[in-house]
Amino acid sequence: MSDGDRQQNGHEKVPSRQRRRFEGISSRAYEHPADRSALVALRRLSGFDTVFKALSGLLPERSLRLLFLSDSVRVSDAQFAHLNDMLRDACYILDLEKVPPMYVNQDPQPNAMCIGLDDPIIVVTTGLVELLDEEEMRAVVGHEVGHALSGHSVYRTILLFLTSLAVRVAWIPLGNLAIMAIVTALREWFRKSELSADRAGLLVGQDLRASMRGLMKIAGGNHLHEMNVDAFLAQAEEYESAGDLRDSVLKILNVLPRTHPFTAVRAAELKKWAESRDHQRIMDGHYPRRDEDKDTSVSDSFRQSAASYATDMKNSKDPLMKLVSDIAGGAGDLGGRVRRGFGGFGGGSGSGSGTDGAAGKDGGAGGTGDEGTDSRG
């Protein structure tokens, strides 16, 4: 390939280097255990897809597609060609047969999403395109293709619809409460699905540092010379382990309104998976195949999920998780542990009480959980 062919609009055409292809790979290979167990159970329910899509016929999918077609730029060989090359490359690496349409939407907020019921579409904002370099953007495109391969777009579309509906029916007694209960459950699932898609992005980009940089830029903007990946990961370590039980409760309240996990936490989770044996086996060519999905055992999936949760809880440095783990293990002096964890219930002088004012330093639980700050959908 000539230098002229490899350059277009200042962007190098892909593949700019050799990457491993995962022929016939099942999304089970990279899905987070909680995400995977829920999806396997849904896939195995007889007639679920038919009933679900019939109910989903109420959703304005055609209107959504027409909106992006009329008011965004569709990626192609003629428009945003470098993104089109990345998209096709990502679909080739993950062996996704049908390349989903991709649109660039004018929005300074860095964001991306994969939506659609029958056929997924990918949308990236100009803020994201302008923020990330080629390798970082490749990981994002792979992230969205991972959503498409896993079938996440259906549930993401319903989540967007129900979130909008909850605002419209907020005046109806109990109506909003019922919808928000479903929205909260969907958000909890979708946060886990984001961890899965981050892994897919790494399988496509095959450059951990680029994935880390992309997440760091989404958190801190285009000032890479002012940031450090190792220091950013240290933030996630501090977030998980610092404080007392009050901080643990605030973490839960802060994350509830969000569709995405916090960015530093995502970076730490991805790094941990990149260093795992599971990731190495995939890179060596040993992974679940798509043609084996029909034979997947639901009970085995749930057992794997439960085992993963148990391991995470045992190894967690979060004070609340450690307390729950101790309770499960039969640790004594529960009342004393709780009192010390909450700093003597506001007073005090009990040993181990927090002194950093953790209950107030976040500016109110949930205050920073606005959905508008979520990125890399």
Q: Can you tell me about this structure?
A:
The chain is mainly alpha-helical and 377 residues long. 57% of the residues lie in helices and 5% in strands. The protein has 18 helices and 6 strands. A 4-stranded mixed sheet has the order 3-4-6-5, sandwiched between helices. A two-stranded antiparallel sheet has the order 1-2. Strand 5 and strand 6 form a beta hairpin. Helix 2 runs antiparallel to helix 15. The two termini are 34 Å apart.
Keywords:
377 residues, mainly alpha, 4-stranded mixed beta sheet, two-stranded antiparallel sheet, globular
- What Rg do the Cα atoms give? 22 Å
Q: Structural class from helices and strands? A: mainly alpha
Largest sheet data: 4 strands, mixed
What percent of the residues sit in helical stretches (DSSP H or I)?
Answer: 55-70%
Distance between the termini: 34 Å
Count of separate DSSP helical elements: 18
Main sheet strand line-up: 3-4-6-5
Bulk shape: globular
Overall strand count: 6
SSE string, helices as H and strands as E: HEEHHHEHEEEHHHHHHHHHHHHH
Mean pLDDT: 74
Low-confidence stretches: 1-14, 337-342, 344-376
As a percent range, the share of strand residues is 5-15%
